[in-house]
Amino acid sequence: MDNYEKRGYLNSDFKLFHLLDTKKQDFEYHYHDFDKIIIFIQGDVTYRIEGCAYKLEPYDILLVNHNDIHKPDIDPSVPYERIIVYLSPGFLQAYQSDSYDLSTCFKKSKELHSHVLRLHSMEKSSLYRTLTDLEYDCTHDGYARDLYCQVLFLEFMIQINRASLTNLVTYLPPATGDHRIIAIMDFINSHLIDDMTVDTIAESCFISRYHLMHLFKDETGYTLFDYITEKRLLLARDLRKTGISVTEACFRSGFKNYSTFSRAYKKHFHASPSETIKDNPPI
């Protein structure tokens, strides 16, 4: 099985980076424990997320959920500039009520199978202004800096969600070579705990077994069962972090054999399932 690397770190509610690459960088498929927001500024980049490809334009906003497998394809002859926000999934859970939910834009992204928000010019100015203020205050000392940065970040998230709910941004359709890949991934992710064979997946997506295997590899960069195993392991780890027992996490993530699960888990995460501890609840 390919080992898709976990990249980045996060030891706070959110962390902001402004990055400019002028030299060639090769990114492999990887994932994060946290959600990620990318504001693309300049470059020649096609971003690949969960089998979907997006040709980016300046000020596109990418929403990458934790555990989404992704990578950018970058033309190194053009500077690649972007602002990245690493975001704890638990942080937004603290900002939900009957009248609002700051994770709505991420949920809508999943429903529409679109990870990219393309801004209209009027919305771009207000969002970018708030983002500029946020970046400045996150990198400069000042009275109650951490608190003010959190206020600015919440304002930014409120603006994104308002724009999303009022259709002032466009959720960009993916430019995949074959849109059957979305149906295949939908089936896999909704049947992770079930027995899956190549034949059952092929039949559900109305595609031959042969074309299914080759299509998935060509469009996503990884084999069908590498992807299924990866997603089951990530689900098991998330279950363990909620306090569920190791045995229950094994079977609730689709593994049928505990020893197979334990070996795969330790090989992938470099720790046994029992060493994964429950996350602290968000404050």
TrEMBL record:
<keyword id="KW-0805">Transcription regulation</keyword>
<dbReference type="GO" id="GO:0043565">
    <property type="term" value="F:sequence-specific DNA binding"/>
</dbReference>
<protein>
    <submittedName>
        <fullName>AraC family transcriptional regulator</fullName>
    </submittedName>
</protein>
<dbReference type="Pfam" id="PF02311">
    <property type="entry name" value="AraC_binding"/>
</dbReference>
<feature type="domain" description="HTH araC/xylS-type">
    <location>
        <begin position="182"/>
        <end position="279"/>
    </location>
</feature>
<dbReference type="InterPro" id="IPR037923">
    <property type="entry name" value="HTH-like"/>
</dbReference>
<dbReference type="GO" id="GO:0003700">
    <property type="term" value="F:DNA-binding transcription factor activity"/>
</dbReference>
<dbReference type="Pfam" id="PF12833">
    <property type="entry name" value="HTH_18"/>
</dbReference>
<dbReference type="InterPro" id="IPR018060">
    <property type="entry name" value="HTH_AraC"/>
</dbReference>
<dbReference type="InterPro" id="IPR009057">
    <property type="entry name" value="Homeodomain-like_sf"/>
</dbReference>
<keyword id="KW-0804">Transcription</keyword>
<keyword id="KW-0238">DNA-binding</keyword>
<dbReference type="InterPro" id="IPR014710">
    <property type="entry name" value="RmlC-like_jellyroll"/>
</dbReference>
<dbReference type="InterPro" id="IPR003313">
    <property type="entry name" value="AraC-bd"/>
</dbReference>
